[in-house]
User: Fold Molecular chaperone from Qipengyuania citrea LAMA 915.
Amino acid sequence: MATNSSDPYATLGVSRNASEKDIKSAYRTLAKELHPDRNKDNPQASERFSKVTNAYDLLSDKDKRAQFDRGEIDADGNPANPFAGMGGGGFRPGGGQRGYRPEDMQGFGTEDVDLGDIFEGLFGGRGPRGGPGGSPFGAQQRRAPQKGADVAYRLRVPFIDAATLKPQRITLADGKTIDLKLPNGVEDGTQMRLKGKGEQGPGGPGDGLVTIAIDPHSFFKRHDDDVRFDLPITLDEAVNGGKVRVPTVDGPVMMTLKPGTSGGTVLRLKGKGFTRKTGTRGDQLVTLEIQLPDTLDELAKRLDGWKDESDPRSKLGV
Assistant:
């Protein structure tokens, strides 16, 4: 299908009210189809690839797209009519060009007029032959080649791996695998940029954008940089105290309970939480939960005739 090379919308095959997402999607599809590496024996594909890239460069720039839509610049980003509104000589509103006549110069006096100064004032250059300032009569400034599109990845990370910053293996779009080092302060939604791991483009490859998704754990929970954990203990352990084995993200550790420990007591294990951006680590907060035995007959016999006279709800005002 033939396209109008002066219309970047037609070049990409999108409507004039296309969204940024639609424009990017159309470019990626055409870039894959027309990329020179896939069309080494087809020079026309290479030419179309260049036009598609130039069209995307213009439409992906919000300011230039707006200028093109208003008719201020052409598809190459050059002023569409640099002499509009000057009157007299130059480009007419209807197109075409005529030379300067003596009557056109009325108001300038009888002195010699340096047209180079006029062009310099208009375009900030060194006259009609171009130079700094980008005069439309000079050599057209070429834009830097567009890099390839970025590729988005979503990486699911186990809770404990995220807490301990265990490297994660990820498979890229080209089939290659790399071991990704998680950053300090990693959390759900953290984005990591992999330089040069995106799609190939005329100006080099884009980047890979990895979004981290931390899986929930069956009994650990994250609170800021700390890890919370509810530890069940027996009535005997609560009354008599002793050492108990406690799971942490770094592996199990032994923790000592004082005799007479109440349920709901929170104990702190230093440095067993997530790594902060500073490199230090949060803690693990262990909440004790007293669990009664499944069979209460023996316990009831031992407590026969004994009654706890304390009032644990007195502070609640009930």
User: Anything to note?
Assistant: The longest helix spans residues 43-59.
